[in-house]
Amino acid sequence: MSVHPIPAGIRVGCVGVQRFRLDARVPGADYLVGEVTWLDEEPGDVDALPELVVQLREAWLTYADSVGAPALLDPPAPVADGVDGDRARALAYAVLDQLRLPLAERQHVLEAVTTRERLQELVARVRREVGLAAALQARPLAPPSVGPSLN
Question: Would you give the distance in Å from CA 129 to the centre of its chain?
Answer without folding.
Answer: 15
